[in-house]
Specification:
Layout lengths: L1 E8 L3 H12 L5 E5 L14 E2 L9 H25 L10 E6 H21 L7 E4 H7 L9 E7 L3 E2 L2 H14 L3 E4 L3 E6 L5 E5 L2 E10 L4 H7 L8 E12 L11 E3 L4 E4 L14 H14 L8 E11 L6 E5 L2 E8 L7 H13 L18
The chain binds flavin-adenine dinucleotide.
Length: about 375
Amino acid sequence: MRTADIIVIGGGLSGSAIALGLVRKGARNVVLFDEQLASQRLSRGNFGLTWFMCKGAGNPVYAQWSRLACRQWPEFAEGLEADTGYNVELDWTGGAVHAVGEDEFKAHQASIEAITKSCEEAGIDYPVTMLNRREFQDLIPDIALGEAVTGAMYTKEQGHVNPLKLLGALRWGFQKKGGTFYGGQTVSAVIPKSRGKVVVKTGMGDFETEKVVIASGHGTKRLLKGLGETLNIYPQRGQVMVTQRVPRVLKVPVLSVRQTQDGTFMIGLSTEDTAMDSKVTAEAMKNQAANAIRLFPELARLNWVRAWGAIRVMTPDGAPIYSRVRNHDNIFAVALHSAVSLAPLAAGTVAPWILGTDEHPLMSKFNNGRFNV
Ligand SMILES: Cc1cc2nc3c(=O)[nH]c(=O)nc-3n(C[C@H](O)[C@H](O)[C@H](O)COP(=O)(O)OP(=O)(O)OC[C@H]3O[C@@H](n4cnc5c(N)ncnc54)[C@H](O)[C@@H]3O)c2cc1C
């Protein structure tokens, strides 16, 4: 039987970032498996925001975690480029959530006050301010705002990346540091054995290992079931539309509209309870396009060239699950939304916790058991 010191199951953004973090911290003989089905496009089909704004309303722990991740993003991107040659196209230009009408403007103000208060109680800053319409327009002078836009909440301290390049950089960085990546390989079961050993069953045969990280997106649920644990996640579909390329006029991403470095506009923000059905719908396309045009009327002139749906991994409180599997201290489960934003922490903070070399004080707050009350 083949052996590995640590096996990571799932080569999406979470598993690849953790695997990279493990080898960066000196772990040897780390193997990463990814099933790589075409339908599993979550890590490739997301919006690419590196974002903390609005995250953790009523949940200071998640607010703090998101903020910590964002603070690390610029250095993380630099490190990835130095290690791999991949430019993940990080634009650290800040980010905005626009408001349409006075009621939404007031609701944004109230949200800033509420999250600032809950962050203060946890001893962290929440550097988000409200811009009036003129201030928002001055921030993005090359594209005209729609008439109904009243302003935006804004922070300087977040941005956006190219998720495809990010995924490539994480996987390549892992392999360059000695990790082994097997794409197109499904893990069918994780079987604890005596003396702390674990057998991982794959299409290439069985592997014996000492530690397993199950970071398989929605697939984590099935693998954990085999270990007698219920994972508290649910699916939520999001749809994304992409326009033709045009000269760059929008350098600050808005939650529902961003322009990539190569000039395409990405338009998003649908949230639907649809089980595992990732198809696109005319209704969501219509709503998303209408919202985008209300924000930036000149988008109406562009051709929309592509669209896709992807299924978010959501938890009941929105925060990640990083958890030891009950009765198996050497098997870890990872499941989360916002794996782009949280990638620096996956590599720099979650990986050392898995290795047992360092445990951040917040780690224990993300246990899967928090939902079993
Ligand atoms: C429309 C949309 C927009 C989004 N925008 C953002 C954003 O702007 N910023 C942000 O931070 N997040 C965003 N997200 C969320 C982000 O995409 C996810 O948090 C992220 O992709 C989750 O990564 P993951 O590695 O945990 O899971 P996944 O991407 O699902 O990866 C899991 C991997 O495990 C593999 N796998 C599954 N089962 C097995 C098995 N049995 N054996 C081997 N391999 C297996 C799969 O092949 C897959 O590659 C968005 C999501 C959606 C839907």
